[in-house]
Amino acid sequence: MNTPLPAQRNRLGRGLASLIGENPPVAAGGTPGAQQKPLPSHGEQRMVPIDRIHPSPFNPRKSFPEGELEELANSIREKGLVQPIVVRPQGQLFEIVAGERRWRAAQKASLHIVPVIVRALTDQETLELAIIENVQRTDLNAIEEAGGYRELVERFGYTQEELSQIIGKSRSHLANTMRLLKLPDTVQVMVRDGQLTAGHARALIGREDAEEVAQEIVRKGMNVRGVEALIQGKKAGGGGNLANLQRGGTPGLQKDADTRAAEREIADALGLAVEIAPGKGEAGEVIIRYRSLEQLEAVRKKLLAS
Q1: Contacts of range 31-34, beta carbons closer than 8 Å, 24 or more positions apart
Q2: d(C-alpha 122, C-alpha 184), whole Å
Q3: Which residues are annotated as catalytic?
Q4: What is the phi/psi pair of residue 255, to 5°?
């Protein structure tokens, strides 16, 4: 197993800014440590023929809707490719680390040469940065995000605590997202295709009738609050085996479906643990738990941008 260095984790945990950082020596063929021609510490910017660039198997994003690509291609035709694609050298070719969607759209826009930043990265760093970029841009659907996390855990032996520090999401968010991979394949496809949200899907985890309920959700166009009410109705009628969705929930003190759904929606948006504590009348508190100053800063920026 390839054990990551603590220094790498700290650097990667700062997000996309870490794309500009130290590089190990890189051979002419692109193999770190083989020859003594290092890339500059900030990476090397180049203009590269688009046919010398290829996608990476480590990119967690698998879905590239045609409409989104065409919209981006139109923007590229008008303004050019403003943000370089981050790549790593592989012989005479380059593998995409961040920016496959831009690469695909650039082809649609008939570009022959594109700007890139060449970085010397291991497989592990490539996967980490691909996940960081996509998660921070909210480009991944929940199943793709979960698959990326699972790859880091199974391929490189990360714990959820270590992933939390690298990705900048709470441990509970990581755990809940990865649990989506326990859903039936048909339900996972619905999430990938955008028919179900992560909030919808989480309510179905552990249910034997998950596929049936998922189809009902899609057929009726139900929102997350409606799903909560549906699930509660099935529980009351003895038709479900859904575990208590509230972290640390106490029997007899269950929150209503709207409150639980609102907690999940906010938690999904922030990637942090969120609790809504109703008070008297319409008053109450919203509690957001963060574990680092970086997470607090991310919350502050999102609130100020809204």
Answers
A1: 32/120, 32/121, 32/122
A2: 33
A3: 100
A4: -85, 160
Which H or E run includes 37? strand 37-38
Dihedral, CA atoms, 207, 212, 213, 216, nearest 10 degrees?
A: 180
Query: For residues 132 and 14, what is the distance between their CA atoms, to the nearest angstrom?
Result: 9
SS3 state at 110: coil
Tens-place pLDDT, residues 237-279 = 544 433 333 333 333 335 666 777 777 778 777 777 788 877 7
Q: Look at strands 44-49 and 53-54 and give their pairing.
A: unpaired
Task: Tell me the one-letter amino acid at 137.
Answer: R
Could you tell me if 59 and 96 are in contact, meaning their C-beta atoms sit under 8 angstroms apart?
Answer: yes
**Count of residues for the chain?**
306
**pLDDT beneath 50, residues of the chain:** 1-36, 238-253
Alpha-carbon distance of 33 to 87, in angstroms, equals 17
Q: Which tokens is 27 given?
A: 């051979």
Q: Please, are residues 144 and 78 in contact by the beta-carbon 8 Å criterion?
A: no
- Of the chain, the percentage scoring pLDDT greater than 70 comes to 75
Q: What's the pLDDT at 251?
A: 36
Give the start-to-end residue ranges of the domains of the chain: 6-171, 183-305
The tokens describing 199, both together, are: 């909030």
Q: What is the residue whose two structure tokens read 């855990």?
A: 153
Per-residue tokens: 89: 């050298």
| Phi, psi angles (nearest 5°) of residue 289 | -100, 125
The amino acid present at 257, given as its one-letter code, is A
Q: What is the residue whose two structure tokens read 């980490």?
A: 128
Cβ contact 102:73 at 8 Å: no
String of DSSP letters for 132-151:
HHHHHTT-S-HHHHHHHHHH
Top CATH class, 6-171: alpha beta
The 3-state DSSP class for residue 113 equals strand
